[in-house]
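Section 5: illustrative case.
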């Protein structure tokens, strides 16, 4: 791991989210996009040239084995997360894996066991917990701005541009709206309620080759608190979320990846609503990558590691999928992951 200087990252696969979100955040955080690996070397080479990555490598294992890298970002299809995250962890490679961490609860348990066994650092790419906006919201809640937080109402909707070709419409790759974007409200509830859910209910509309294209549902938490969530691929961009307390509410236009036009508004009966702009705009990944790189340089203690946060999210997604009438996407049993040696 680098004792000083820039952290050199490898990107596993040529996913759109890497060039749209990860790479801009990496550059803003002062990291180096050192390599990208793909099954098709020609495609990876073109991807590297288009997006300012130093080198292209043939195959994912080559990336893991490359001695010139300090950390790996894994934005592969959900169904491939477990296999390649485990291989990277066993090789001692710190990993930032796209959400959801795995396709199934069983796979999540297995990957977290490997992270614990090896001691290799692993983060799940929910980046909003590292941002200034959530820090401000936590402070408001701690100060009693809306009394006791009782309910979270949270949406995540957008329209797929080309549903017929999008991997998120393929059940074999663990696609679907709940896995892709419904996981954000689930993680928000985990951050603010800081407890495991006690009940789950959901209903879904199905499409593609057997994925949920829209899901609505709820999670019940201790002391009667709840999350009400809605997610899908069929309507305009919408991440509006509301925190409801015993004496008021906070309305948030962009809770997950706030942009300059986003706001959060504190509404308390009998008082004028207070509207606050989202914190100074950074790329969504920047704060998370700045922290990870500081950890790798020995400057900060790690926080929001997958071993501390991901199991609750995976259990909630599993229970919501079950309630909606079908098992969570992906294999019923964990993938058979080879042991070292």
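Designed sequence:
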């Amino acid at each position: 791991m680098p004792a000083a200087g820039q952290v050199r990252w490898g990107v596993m696969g040529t996913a759109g989210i890497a060039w749209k979100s990860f790479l801009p955040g990496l550059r803003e955080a002062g990291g180096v996009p050192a390599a990208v690996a793909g099954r098709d070397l020609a495609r990876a080479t073109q991807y590297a040239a288009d997006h300012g990555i130093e080198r292209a490598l043939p195959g994912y294992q080559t990336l893991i084995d490359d001695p010139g890298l300090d950390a790996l970002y894994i934005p592969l299809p959900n169904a491939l997360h477990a296999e390649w995250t485990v291989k990277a962890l066993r090789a001692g490679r710190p990993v930032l894996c796209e959400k959801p961490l795995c396709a199934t609860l069983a796979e999540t348990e297995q990957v977290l066991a490997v992270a614990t066994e090896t001691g290799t650092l692993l983060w799940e790419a929910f980046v909003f917990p590292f941002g200034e906006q959530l820090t401000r919201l936590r402070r408001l809640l701690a100060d009693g701005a809306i009394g006791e937080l009782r309910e979270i109402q949270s949406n995540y909707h957008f329209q797929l541009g080309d549903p017929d070709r999008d991997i998120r419409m393929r059940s074999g790759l663990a696609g679907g709206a709940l896995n892709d974007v419904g996981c954000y409200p689930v993680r928000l509830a985990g951050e603010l309620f800081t407890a495991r859910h006690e009940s789950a209910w959901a209903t879904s509309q199905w499409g593609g080759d057997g994925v949920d294209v829209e899901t609505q549902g709820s999670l019940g938490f201790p002391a009667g608190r709840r999350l009400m969530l809605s997610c899908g691929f069929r309507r305009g961009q919408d991440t509006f979320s509301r925190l409801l307390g015993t004496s008021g509410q906070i309305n948030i236009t962009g809770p997950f990846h706030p942009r300059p036009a986003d706001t959060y508004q504190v509404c308390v009966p009998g008082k004028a609503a207070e509207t606050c702009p989202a914190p100074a705009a950074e790329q969504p990944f920047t704060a998370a990558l700045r922290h990870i790189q500081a950890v790798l340089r020995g400057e900060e203690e790690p926080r929001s590691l997958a071993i501390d946060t991901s199991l609750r999210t995976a259990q909630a997604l599993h229970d919501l999928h079950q309630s909606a009438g079908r098992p969570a996407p992906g294999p019923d049993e964990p993938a058979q992951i080879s042991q070292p040696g």
